[in-house]
Write a structure and sequence with these properties.
The structure is a single chain. The protein is of the alpha/beta class and 309 residues long. The chain has two domains: 10-103 and 260-292, Rossmann fold; 107-256, Rossmann fold (3-Layer(aba) Sandwich). Helix content is 40%, strand content 18%. The chain contains ten helices and twelve strands. The strands form two sheets. A seven-stranded mixed sheet has the order 7-6-5-8-9-11-10, with helices on both faces. The protein has a five-stranded parallel sheet with strand order 2-1-3-4-12, sandwiched between helices.
Length: 309
């Protein structure tokens, strides 16, 4: 007879792609799951039986040991699957669930949290370069929620418009779409910007060094690309608030340590009880707390106060 003493923490990885992400599987274990069980090719039409298997098998006091992680490369598909999973829940029968399609929430939250820890976002013009992917869309929304005046670029205007409309529908924020086909066009979009976040495809340079180094309004840059050539030329993937040409730079690995810590922390939080619902808003809130704590460690309050004086 099972006594409950060895209750395992089970994380069910529901992926919209054919093969569940290996990255998400590894972080699932590192976040505290005893077993990560992956299911690929999921959509709202075929997920119900899997959810029912998760919510009906354990007693109410033990449901906190079962959780669901929704991932995959398609953000919109992930959102629909995330909603479909929750639609199967009813009082007394639910488990904690998290959405992070293609690292969209954790990567975007870490990048924007690091920018927020480095300077003021509210009222500043921010440009998300090549922002139509999952990370770019969510990062643009988070910047807007922090009070920045946000634009999002794409090689084709219709893709930029679609991304901005998606974020308006989901978060109620206004983001300006901009068509920027090449580096020269992207350089024009940042002429009066204070913040630039690059979220383009791996190995694609979006701006060269000479296109940003002498920009007098530019204060902060973050680049989510860790595959050479980097998205922003003249930066380093290891940059952690590094000062280059008078601008504060965050590289993909530089803020990636927060992304991984945040991802693990979210997985751990899923097992605190069976009612956690982790999406952009609360993942970003946690990222800001973690970034603030790290900045306090790096820069003690006494030193900060002396700098202010």
């Amino acid at each position: 007879m099972y006594t409950g003493k060895l209750m395992k923490k089970l994380l069910f990885q529901f992926d919209t792609d054919t093969h569940p992400s290996v990255f998400d599987t590894v972080v699932g274990y590192d976040g505290g799951a005893d077993h990560v069980i992956g299911h690929g090719g999921l959509m709202p039409e075929n997920v119900t039986a899997l959810v029912e298997g998760a919510i009906f098998t354990r007693a109410p006091k033990d449901k906190k040991n079962t959780a669901i992680f929704v991932g995959g490369s398609d953000m919109l598909a992930g959102q629909k699957l995330f909603a479909a999973v929750q639609s199967c829940f009813f009082p007394g029968f639910q488990v904690s669930v998290m959405l992070d399609s293609n690292g969209s929430n954790t990567t975007a939250a870490a990048a924007v949290a690091k920018l927020a820890s480095s300077g003021v976002l509210a009222g500043k013009k921010a440009v998300v370069l090549a922002g139509t992917g999952p990370v770019g869309q969510r990062a643009a929304a988070m910047l807007a929620q922090e009070g920045a005046i946000v634009s999002l670029t794409a090689r084709k205007m219709e893709r930029a418009v679609a991304a901005c409309n998606n974020m308006k529908l989901r978060f109620g924020v206004d983001i300006t779409p901009i068509e920027a086909f090449d580096n020269e066009a992207r350089a024009k979009t940042i002429e009066n910007a204070a913040i630039v976040l690059a979220t383009g495809a791996a190995g694609v340079e979006l701006l060269s060094t000479d296109q940003w180094q002498d920009n007098s309004t530019l204060e902060m840059i973050a680049d989510a690309n860790a595959t050479p050539p980097l998205g922003i030329g003249g930066t380093d993937m290891m940059d952690k608030g590094t000062l280059r040409h008078g601008k504060i730079i965050w590289g993909a690995i530089g803020f990636g340590s927060l992304k991984l810590a945040l991802h693990r922390a979210c997985i751990a939080q899923l097992f605190e009880d069976n009612k956690q619902v982790l999406d952009a808003e609360n993942i970003f809130a946690l990222a800001k707390k973690m970034a603030y704590r790290l900045s306090e460690i790096k820069f003690p309050k006494s030193l900060k106060n002396s700098q202010k004086s």
